[in-house]
Design goal:
5-stranded antiparallel sheet; alpha+beta; 12 strands; 4-stranded antiparallel sheet; 11 helices; about 325 residues; elongated
Length: about 325
Amino acid sequence: MVRADRLVAVLLLMQARGRVTAAEVAEELEISVATARRDLEALSTAGIPVYPQPGRNGGWQLIGGARTDLSGLTATEAQALFLLVGPAASIAPDAKAALRKLVRALPDTFRADAEAAAEAVVIDPARWGEHVKERPELVRQLQDAVVRRLKVRLVYAERGREESERLVDPLGLVDKDDIWYLIAWTAKGRRTFRVERIVSAELTDEGFERSADFDLSAAWSEIVDQMEVRRSGLTATVVMDERFVWVMQDRLGRNCEVDGMDGDRVRLKVTAPTPLMVAQHLAGWGGSIEVVDPPSVQAELARLGSELVSRYSGIT
């Protein structure tokens, strides 16, 4: 344990118990009694009101009810937190203000590294030549419902069906490639709603209890896995030069996996629901790739190529 982390742990232990012995500190933090005694003396020397109490029932005591604003963060945890919060501060004034307050709450030994972590990354949400995308107002309303644990009455336009009204318990929101999804509990179990298909949303006064076991990240991972299974109805074997593999993987994500070598080229497995969709993913690569199988994808590529030749062959 890094000493700065350990001193914070000792201080928090004293806040919880009021008075401790070096032996108790040693047992709690799994260090030697001599190390625990040196840590207690270091806190006292640093000006923190920690004093030894002589006698049979003595020990070390935090005098005067002195407390710290720390939440038990270690130095490593503080850096990790500020690496996450720091980029948001570049685009969100509220996050920037919160960051300043968090820095002030940290001990001096943590501050320099935490501030450096906060400034290590900047997020620019606008692509070249584009304006910054504002978070939709509907997303803000749903986020408010998630935080306040309020049921929401939705009117939802599911693809290919009539609009329907549903009363849901909003569990969390996910932003994937600028498309927002609401994960909510309904009368039929957990459901995922595409926010852009929500016609209207009304926050009710009726609260709900979210299960303590619910984890938004884990729930979204499960949803993604299920979606990928549905999307991966057909697999094509493709070979291409190794130098371009990273581009293909970047574009297709989980739908593109390396399957070994084919001579001096890389063999890939590309998946999509239909042969046409696989062909559409691959058509832009022209002759730089080769589809080994299945024939259905080869046929779709040939058809797409014929259509392009027919339309543009007379253009010079």
